[in-house]
Amino acid sequence: MKIGVEEFVRQKFAEYYHENSYEIKPPTSLERREFGFLLFKDRTMIRHKGFKCIEELTRFLEITIPSDVYHSAAYYNRPEERMEEKGWLGADLIFDVDADHIETPCKNEHDAWTCLSCGKSEKGPTPENCPSCNQQKFEERIWLCGDCLEAAKMETLKLIDILLSDFGFSNDEIVVCFSGHRGYHVHIEIEEVHSLDQLARKEVVDFVRGTGLDATYHGLYEKAIGARKMGKTMVGPDINDPGWRGRLSRGVYDFLANATLEQLEKTGLRKKTAGAIIEHRESLLKAWQTKAPWDAVRGFGISAWKKITDYAIKTQGANVDTVVTTDIHRLIRLPATIHGKTGLKAVKISVADLEAFDPLSESVAFTKGTVTINVSEAPKFRLSDQFYGPYKRQKVELPTSAAMLLLLKGCATLGE
Amino acid sequence: MLTSESDWAKYPFTVEASRYVQERGLKIDDLASQMYLHIFEKAAKRVEEAILDGVVHMSWRRVEDGVEILSYPVASMIVMAIGDPFLKRRYSLAEAKRAQRLLVNEMPRKSKEHTLDIAISTFNWRIRSVDEEIGGRYFDFAVSFADYLRNAAGFHDDKWKLVNRVVIGGYAYLTIEEATRLLQEEIRKKIEKKLEERLEFELPPLLNQRVEVLKNILAQRKGEITIEEMPKDFIVAAFPPCIKHLYNATFSGQHIPHLGRFTLTSFLLNTGMTTDEVMKLFSQLADFDQKMTQYQVEHIAGVRGSRTKYTPPNCDTLRTHGICVDMDELCRRVRHPLTYYRRKMKALQGTRVKKERE
After folding, report:
1. Domain A215-316 has CATH 1.10.8.160
2. pLDDT greater than 60 at residue A84
3. Distance (Å) from the alpha carbon of B211 to chain A's nearest alpha carbon
4. To the nearest whole angstrom, how far is the Cα of A223 from the nearest Cα of chain B?
5. What is the model's pTM?
């Protein structure tokens, strides 16, 4: 960030924390949490801070004016000590759903990368290796967009359904937060989960994502029939079954209802079988609502079905980050503080409000005034109900929130 | 509630049984007295069976309940006096197995009642008795997912993975066999923790002879349980597919995620590679940072920081984080990349010997 820009955005952050500190609510047992802050200056990270009360924390924010504010999901005896001496007491169960990990077609429109060695530049998600020089250092432009955030929200809703129905948490035990950038965080703070160790949390992540799921444990098997057990019939779970049983059945139904010939073949099915599915799709879907759907495709044995259930697992599971949940010392963004890459604030949302939540308007933090900036390049984007751009090498006067986004993203400088 | 002496004899680790023991006011010095000698002998037998058979036998029928109950805390004292960590683990498991077998062998109604009693009053589980058929399977219990995971998360069989269980409203559904198996793990942990307590005491000298005999049996048994030793030179051909993949990716200068680097580093260090050799390998990486890499590699090797030498994550964890690739036949039979390596190494060396003979 250019010096002038840094001073300017820091000033804006200062005003925000000065005027809105009442909006910042303490996490449960604030005095047992470790806090961490990212500073504007040199992007330095301060860790191992502890506070006695919320006033002490907000005063610290007003004086220090960090670009990002985090607190530990863990509770410690001595939050300010070094890691080994903190005395871990337990941790909230947290989940991170990040649009970066979800494939969305719009990334080809708004994301871009530039290879730092050969200068090649293209739109779309950053590749592992540069296609022209094979190097791996890139400058990325990752944009925040309504479609990507919608995809992240869908994953979050899937996660919440699993937390409610399978894990039995209640609506008010689940805290959802928009991160202020590309995703959602979900916190479970009730005492029952505090003592879960890494191994147990790994099992929870695997459950939520469907990793390691074997459909035979959920009622999918070949049953021998007839007096001499010569014949075989397929038995499987029902659409209305609880938990992963029902999810498997619904996932397969969705897949059969929508898959193209190409997608069917991609699961590893033979061409003939895939063709037969397309041809008899109507009667197949009808059969799915009766009692014996898994037997409706002749010659479809357990291995063929497992190829399709594997696909169903991917669509029915919630795509959460595996590392965040299993890390029992993780720092996570504090709600109502500003995200240093966007100027949007992290917002706490109740489960009931999530579906209708619009991250691009409800997270706007800088609501007053306009700023004139020189934009080098930016795709079309939306904040609140207003669309902006695309811009290329032009001077524009924008509402402060939009200007802050472009300044923080590094694609604009201050105008005269 | 477990109300009879014969129940306490069967399940001496329960709160009810330990209350009984406390009321008896057993003292260490009493042990050598004639009156207590058969209690001591029974206790020694418990330890001996644990060493030799891996399970304490269900002999509660043959002796008086009182003797049986008191022999349990005395056996703990013997194990603590010997102080061997291997014995502590083996004895805890043997006692836990005994309890599990006793539970499933009770009359059906008693079996369910006792399992529930022990789970609730001794271990504070959130568990309830059910009588439900779900998807063609019959279940006896529903236990809270947290209590389930605290014990089953370490089990290796796929059927214990939470994602492969019936889980509804925060409860995992279990058969009586499964519930007692889960309880066995809880019992084992409780006993092992108890044996870790530091108690200053000395057994009466009169009993030393019997303890010496136990020590001998233990030494013999430990000799038989051979520990697979790690071969000295590392051979890429014996790497499991996940490590091979990480290794090749590193050599060709590709980016590997943090956990991948950790896995590869800890694996290589455990196969006998030196930190310098590992550093050399990583210098191929595009984003190689000498100082940072040195710090991290030395950390994993245990020469820095917490001083623990790390081993790579197990297969389960690697699968969770998408590092497990191209599983082969041997992969299906192991749970840890280092086990794969040792076995493959053995197999490779075997074929080499054969070839030389030909």
Report:
1. yes
2. yes
3. 38
4. 12
5. 0.81
